[in-house]
């Protein structure tokens, strides 16, 4: 699979990049994407929500008035959940929302998310560039040249570039991340994934599933070493 490489101004540079079919050419697995996105969103929850129950409200435990003879409904103390300012019935308590997803599943989810973007022609490669100083206008001009001003863009770089990051952090619909750190949620949230040419290697390495050599390959390598 080959994709063209574009220049900063949005024109084709005449070069192309070759994508690894084992990484970028798989059939998307929507269920795995859902598992990983659910886990990512769960990890983002603090879980510190808390309301006071009846025994925790700072009010007197004295019965409000006598049981009979008042003409009113019988009542206990002011901490009753039925009264204003009383405790909460079955209110939220601090809770850990973390969900575990193994590494292979996370990698498959990221590959599936990227495959969805490739199938929708929403992945574009751009030549490597760097800014001398942080300037939002320079980054906005690049997006305008690619006709991406009004779209949610995930810009993937080879490494963390603080100058590039500062140039784009004031652009509301632009997210800039190192390619190896882009999550399934980042990929699915973006409408277009803009990848620097030099980020293809780190992105491929991050998404490639680790595979052990087969027994035949292992025996062959052993025999070659002994020879």
Structure, explained:
By secondary structure, this protein is an alpha/beta fold. The protein has a domain of 135 residues: Ribosomal Protein L4, Chain: A, CATH 3.40.1370. It is built from eight helices and six strands. Strands 2-1-3-6-4-5 form a six-stranded mixed β-sheet. Helix 2 packs across helix 3. The chain is elongated. It starts with a strand and ends with a helix.
For the largest beta-sheet, the strand count, sense and barrel status come to:
6 strands, mixed
Q: For this structure, what is the CATH class of one domain?
A: Alpha Beta
Number of DSSP strand runs: 6
Element-level helix/strand string? EEHHHEHEHEHEHH
Query: Which homologous superfamily in CATH is the superfamily of one domain?
Result: Ribosomal protein L4/L1
Q: Judging by the overall fold, what is the CATH architecture of one domain? A: 3-Layer(aba) Sandwich
Q: Strand sequence of the main sheet, in spatial order? A: 2-1-3-6-4-5
Number of helices: 8
SS-derived structural category: alpha/beta
Low-pLDDT segments, ≥5 res? 212-218, 221-225
β-strand percent reads 5-15%
- The average pLDDT value, as a whole number, equals 89
Would you kindly provide a brief summary of this structure?
The protein has 227 residues and is α/β, with parallel strands linked by helices. 34% of the residues lie in helices and 14% in strands. A hairpin with a 5-residue loop joins strand 1 and strand 2 (12-18).
Q: What is this structure's SSE topology?
A:
Elements: E1 2-6, E2 12-18, H1 21-24, H2 30-43, H3 103-119, E3 123-126, H4 136-145, E4 153-157, H5 162-168, E5 174-178, H6 184-189, E6 192-196, H7 200-207, H8 215-226
Parallel strand pairs: 1-3, 3-6, 4-5, 4-6
Antiparallel strand pairs: 1-2
Helix pairs in contact: 2-3, 4-5
